[in-house]
Sequence to fold (471 residues):
Amino acid sequence: MKKRLAVIGNGMAAGRLLDELTRRNANLTYDVTVYGVEKHAAYNRIQLGRVLNGAGVDSITLKEPSWYANHGILLEAGVRVRQVNPVGRTLTTCDNRTLPYDAAVFATGSAAVVPPVGGLALADGTRKPGAFVFRTITDCEAIRDYAHPAASVVVVGAGILGLEAAKSLCDLGLYVTVLHNGPTLMNAQLDRHGGAMLRRAIEKMGIYVRTEARVAEVLGESRTEGVRLESGESIPAEIVVFSCGIVPRTETAKASGVAVNRGIVVNDRLSTATPGVYAVGECAEHDGKCYGLVEPIWEQCAVLADVLTGANPRARYFGSKVYTRLKVAGVEVASMGLVESERDTDEVIQVIEDRQGIYRKLIVRDGKLAGAMLVGNTEAAPTLIRLYDRDEPLPPNRLDVLASPGGGVGTLATGPEICNCHHVGENALAEAIRGGATTVTELSRCTKAGTGCGSCRGALASLISKHAPSA
Ligand SMILES: Cc1cc2nc3c(=O)[nH]c(=O)nc-3n(C[C@H](O)[C@H](O)[C@H](O)COP(=O)(O)OP(=O)(O)OC[C@H]3O[C@@H](n4cnc5c(N)ncnc54)[C@H](O)[C@@H]3O)c2cc1C
Fold:
């Protein structure tokens, strides 16, 4: 008889886990049910900016409802799991159903952090109209419904998500001001020069940026009318979007007696200490770390699928080296490892091309890459990611790794790696193009390239022109 696998959450981790399970023929062992609070089937959260920008939900859908049915998976969309009872191996849903499971996976992701500023709630405890976060399709639709042409918006937080929200809102024709409490934009990934370069590019788009600006209060009686800064200054705005970080969603795990620290604590098998209960994605804490990017999540899903199906009983997750490559508000950015040198013996190589808006920096320790950042041109990113990930020695002339885009990356068989999220090389893409893929969507469908962070979609379009068979 088949076992019952319950996946709690239907975000990017769950979607990827289902792919990995399908690849291992898990349907022979398990009847899988996926429970997701959101009413949508799995979508690409990374590309939410498109929905904010006016695109339809279809444009970011990863799996149609029919995909689940075709793979024998039951999708319970719009259903929150309230509690898991690990002793009786049952779970309770928000509509008070109690359902059996044999193995359960928490893939509950994160929630947006809203800082404890004054004036956020109305007298009845509800959030003041005009104050939003940017995490789900519902958030994007609510912002779009509320916004009117030429409205003023304040985005609080200049990390990846805040800048992404600012760009989309600016494209909608709104007046956007970004407030950041530190001196440097994207300070988790960029140093002073990188942050300044990014700031200039963003300001050129018509977005106002204020650093060292801390919000104390949301102004307005019955709706948002602006924000007051700690300095006492007021900035008028009809809309405030908070983008101040994320926190793992652990409420259901906690209610179920599953061990939670910052995230749901898992071991190298992605298993919690509660028998039959696993966790994966942003909600999971492995070796004291919770991750907020998809690449580590992809690695976790592959291991968990091996563990659950027994395809590789020795599979283990040992943590991930994190790197970021994305388009922030239209500007290409890549970053990995250290942002600043830490030791006297660290070598720092910086190439600043101010007029072109390009900044590149390497931090080298013991001949290996300890950190790197690229702003404005990320062609060298695949090379750097590979060197960083594999801890390989750099060539004696460090600049070589910046000068040869894609050089040395991939093998002769794969060609330079174009999609870092799915590790798709140019040769596979060229083959798909010669095989008939004529649009980026078709190319993504047959190779998966471009379906992660989406930052390589421009490169995919160029490859289509380069490799299209002549008429
Ligand atoms: C705007 C934006 C841009 C981003 N850009 C990048 C990028 O460029 N590169 C990158 O690597 N990462 C990026 N990220 C981060 C990336 O999207 C996340 O790392 C990824 O979505 C995490 O996947 P997850 O499945 O763990 O969590 P989520 O995608 O948050 O999914 C969790 C799901 O579980 C549901 N859920 C929670 N509790 C329950 C419950 N009790 N019962 C049922 N369902 C439940 C939630 O409603 C949610 O749908 C971005 C994120 C955002 C918001």
About this structure: The CA atoms of residues 187 and 320 lie 21 Å apart. Confidence is low (pLDDT under 50) at residues 406-411. The longest strand covers residues 358-365. The domain at 131-244 is CATH 3.50.50.60 (FAD/NAD(P)-binding domain).
